Automatic annotation (TrEMBL):
Protein name, as recorded: non-specific serine/threonine protein kinase
Disordered as annotated region, ranges: 1-31
Record's catalysed reaction(s): L-threonyl-[protein] + ATP = O-phospho-L-threonyl-[protein] + ADP + H(+); L-seryl-[protein] + ATP = O-phospho-L-seryl-[protein] + ADP + H(+)
PPR repeats: 603-637, 638-672, 673-707, 708-742, 743-777, 778-812, 813-847
Enzyme class: transferase
Family annotation (CDD domains): STKc_MAP3K-like
Any GO CC annotation of this UniProt entry: cytosol
Length: 886
């Protein structure tokens, strides 16, 4: 009997001890933790379970009393609800698919306050707010808002079939979580739809239809005083007929009467309005801002700010007025809507009902959709900016004091003499990349085998990222780049991706090593299917055509189906024709169209490529004949066609003809775009007609055409060339306020302008700013800076710039080396000039005759006989190499 009573009393005592411990943790009682000792061997777990079960049954019986309260009109009977499986996880809960009374529904379990962190008061406040707002939600009825079915303030009666392994067990659901049920929409999210169409983009009519659906839904919500607060493409659903429905009201609120009552960072970064990010009070116009971002995303089928971190986006949106960059092809009326919606001042944003009216007024009959990626890459480069000469001043080691810490941070050894082989030693490179770069540059390897032996002595971990970075860094140096590529593919457990093979094919084509290029392509063909693609053949055709091997490029197109299984379609034909035109053979391009027009479908771009080619040669009669041929094939000449004519007349400075073509295209119902006006304004500026160029800017605004980033870059170029540096700086500073992102061309233009006016600190600060805003520089960024350093004899800054290039994965090309050799010759730094000349030759690059003559003449004038003989021996090696390749 004693033993039995002991068994009963022991769990009781242990339960009391547990209760005492809980009281202690909550601040009750005076017993110290040291006095509270438990003996595990005295605890009867079976009896403890029995006591806990009795205790929980009393708690459940008390909670059951609460369920007898009168139900709200929006509350549902959970016994009729079956959850089938999880659809998604959100920030505030989990979404399930299920049925309610045989109705197909989506169920979101909102676990606010059930995470063990919120206090009882906070949980009660959240549930009270939820209850108040659901009372409004259930009255919503609009075709562009998900249909509300009902809600529940608890989930303990949910039925989840345990036989389905994909379902979540019932005990995983918080019993007091809130539960919202809406009609299930089967078409997935708008975000998923845009991702699927990322490459081919959406027709303009579809863009406007989706935008109207979203704007009408938001306008309806705002009319009911509801602010969604998390408008983004992931929260929009599409039904089977592509009708958009607004979903996920997890953070929606009834708009507060007092604006200061709505604060806090609620929503998704990238879509959040500046006032929300800045912690200021906000209202329904935060939804208008988010709509503007969604509208851009729908049009572009792309992510805004893909290269920026969330922290950078938040800061730039608030402080720099950062907005997504407008595509040049976007109709000006749609651009205006976006910019009005994401205005930094919420009071200047339109109401959603106004946005609906503006969208309804758009004309979608003439197209205007985003250009697909495969066509955008074939559009000619319209704007080219030239570098200008810079005045000089002397001091080898001089560095602008305010920029000295930034420059020295990039130099491993600032006091080391300028030498091409030491430029890659940087203190902040990735260790593997830095080690490999040092190995590949510390000596000149005579063969691929010698390089492979050197690489075998190190334990490098090969990855796609590492290979890509090395290929970028050494894409002008055959033995390091191809030797490393060959060595990497021999490493156990590593296989090059198709993209890296294609990149290597392009590098070999650029180097004119066609023997190695075709050898590599044959190797790709022996690998698994999918390695040799149209992208591979495009790179081959472009490189052959650029090097004037026109017949070989055409033969690749003829044979690529039989040899590699790559189909001949419209895109491939257009790529070939574009490559031939850019390779200075419009005649070959014309013959290709005639040869394949019956076997490959043509597009308007096929004819426009020819129009552009004939215009380049000033054969306007042939260009006009091609435009007539377009009509015969069912294509009307478009803005591309007329802009090609205008561009050619601009190059001739024949502005009378320019304006004639402009009037003709308008007469034919073809409106000019920003590209058209950019060509005209740039030509007027170069011809010294700056006032007329500025008049054109005003005319463009009257015509309703929105200036884009390239237009502003051209405007900056014109102002800088005319000596109006302050005006150029003002335009540059104003761009973010106009919703324009300053791209690499903009920065290059501004840097070139600063160098032109010998503004050394301004030019270097612009380069520094590019790093801060994640705008990747290219070789054209550095050329004016290198010229300026050579003329000013800034050897330490010159070394910094070359290291900075390497850190941005840029490899000096013939133009860069020629610039350095000529600049150092003119500044009397002949040792440096000889070093760079030698490095250029050893990399397999061929110096220009003018560069060689200048260097030899300078060496002769200084009596440097030994150095002159070495330079001439290097050139003999180049001549010998060309003889072997021939």
């Amino acid at each position: 009997m004693d033993s039995e009573s002991e068994e009963v009393r022991t769990p009781k005592r242990e339960l009391e001890a547990v209760g005492a411990l809980n009281s202690k943790m909550k601040g009750a009682g005076n017993q110290s933790s040291k006095d509270m000792i438990f003996r595990a061997d005295k605890i009867d777990l079976k009896s403890l379970d029995a006591q806990l079960e009795k205790h929980l049954s009393r708690v459940w019986s008390r909670s059951s009393i609460d369920t007898k309260r009168p139900k709200e009109e929006w509350e549902i009977d959970l016994s009729k609800l079956d959850l089938r499986y999880i659809v998604a996880h959100g920030a505030y809960g989990t979404v399930y698919r299920g049925t309610y009374d045989t109705r197909d529904v989506a169920v979101k379990v909102l676990d606010w306050g059930e995470d063990g962190v919120a206090t009882a008061a906070e949980t009660a406040a959240l549930r009270a707010s939820f209850k108040q707002e659901v009372a409004v939600w259930h009255k919503l009825d609009h075709p562009n808002v998900t249909k509300f079915v009902g809600a529940s303030m608890g989930t303990s009666n949910l039925k989840i079939p345990s036989k389905n392994s994909s379902n979540v067990a019932q005990d995983s659901l918080p019993s007091r979580a809130c539960c919202v049920i809406v009609d299930f929409v089967p078409g997935g999210t708008l975000k998923q739809y845009l991702i699927r169409n990322r490459r081919k983009k959406l027709a303009y009519k579809i863009v406007i239809q989706l935008a109207l659906d979203l704007s009408r839904g938001l306008s309806y919500l705002h009319s009911k005083k509801i602010v969604h607060r998390d408008v983004k493409t992931e929260n929009m659903l599409l039904d089977g007929n592509r009708n958009l429905k607004i979903a996920d009201f997890g953070v929606a609120r009834v708009e507060a009467m007092n604006p200061s009552d709505m604060t806090g960072e609620t929503g998704t970064l990238g879509y959040m309005a500046p006032e929300v990010l800045d912690g200021k009070p906000y209202n329904r116009r935060c939804d208008v801002y988010s709509f503007g971002i969604c509208l851009w995303e729908i049009y572009c089928c792309d992510m805004p700010y893909p290269d920026l971190s969330f922290a950078d986006v938040s800061s730039a949106v608030v402080r720099q007025n950062l907005r997504p960059e407008m595509p040049r092809c976007c109709p000006s009326a749609l651009v205006n809507i976006m910019r009005k919606c994401w205005d930094g001042n919420p009071n200047k944003r339109p109401e959603m009902v106004e946005v609906v009216r503006m969208l309804e007024a758009l004309d979608t009959s003439k197209g205007g959709g985003m250009i697909p990626e495969d066509q955008a890459s074939e559009i000619p480069c319209w704007v080219n900016f030239s570098d200008s000469s810079i005045p000089s001043s002397d001091h080898d080691d001089f560095v602008i004091p305010s920029l000295a810490p930034w420059l020295h941070a990039h130099l491993f050894n600032p006091s080391q003499p300028l030498n091409p082989t030491t430029l890659y030693q940087s203190s902040n490179l990735d260790h593997n990349v830095q080690s490999l770069t040092t190995l590949l540059t510390k000596q000149r390897y005579s063969s691929f085998q010698e390089l492979a032996q050197a690489l075998d002595t190190h334990a490098f971990q090969v990855s796609d990222g590492l290979v890509q970075q090395i290929l970028k860094r050494f894409n002008n140096d055959l033995i390091p780049v191809y030797g490393f590529f060959k060595w990497a593919k021999s490493q156990t457990g590593y296989v090059h991706s198709p993209e890296l093979y294609n990149y290597m094919v392009d590098i070999l084509g650029k180097m004119k090593r066609y023997d190695l290029m075709w050898e590599l392509i044959e190797e790709m063909a022996r690998l698994e299917k999918g390695y040799v693609t149209l992208d591979t053949m495009v790179k081959v055709m472009r490189r052959l055509a650029k090097n004037h091997k026109h017949e070989e490029a055409i033969q690749v197109f003829r044979r690529m189906g039989d040899d590699y299984g790559v189909g001949k379609d419209t895109k491939a034909l257009n790529v070939l024709m574009d490559a031939l035109v850019k390779g200075d053979s419009i005649e070959h391009a014309h013959n290709v169209l005639l040869e394949f027009k019956t076997s490959v479908p043509l597009s308007s771009l096929s004819f426009n490529i020819l129009v552009h080619g004939w215009c380049k040669l000033r054969k306007f009669d042939m260009a006009l004949k091609t435009m007539e041929d377009m009509k015969e094939h069912g294509f009307n000449p478009d803005v591309f066609s007329y802009t090609s004519l205008i561009e050619a007349h601009c190059r001739d400075k024949d502005f009378r003809k320019v304006y004639q073509v402009l009037e003709e295209m308008k007469k034919n119902g073809c409106n000019p775009n920003a590209v058209t006006y950019t060509n005209m304004m740039l030509a007027l500026g170069k011809a010294g007609h700056l006032s007329k160029a500025m008049e054109l800017y005003e005319k463009m605004k009257i015509d309703g055409i929105v200036a884009d980033t390239p237009f502003y870059s051209a405007l900056i170029f014109n102002l800088g060339k005319a000596g109006r540096l302050k005006d150029a700086c003002d335009i540059f500073d104003d761009m973010p306020k106009q919703g324009l992102v300053r791209d690499v061309v903009t920065y290059n233009t501004m840097i070139s302008t600063a160098c032109l006016h010998s503004k050394e600190e301004t030019a270097l600060r612009l380069l520094k700013e590019m790093g801060k805003v994640s705008c990747k520089p290219n070789l054209e960024t550095y050329h004016p800076l290198l010229k300026m350093c050579c003329k000013k004899k800034r050897m330490k800054v010159l070394k910094f710039l070359l290291v900075h290039m390497t850190q941005n994965d840029l490899s000096p090309d013939v133009g860069t080396y020629s610039l350095l050799v000529r600049g150092l010759c003119k500044s009397g730094k002949l040792d440096g000039a000889c070093s760079f000349f030698e490095d250029m030759v050893l990399q397999g690059l061929t110096p220009k005759d003018s560069t060689l003559k200048l260097l030899v003449a300078e060496l002769e004038s200084k009596g440097m006989v030994k150095e002159k003989a070495h330079v001439e021996s290097l050139m003999a090696r180049v001549a010998e190499k060309h003889t072997v390749l021939a």
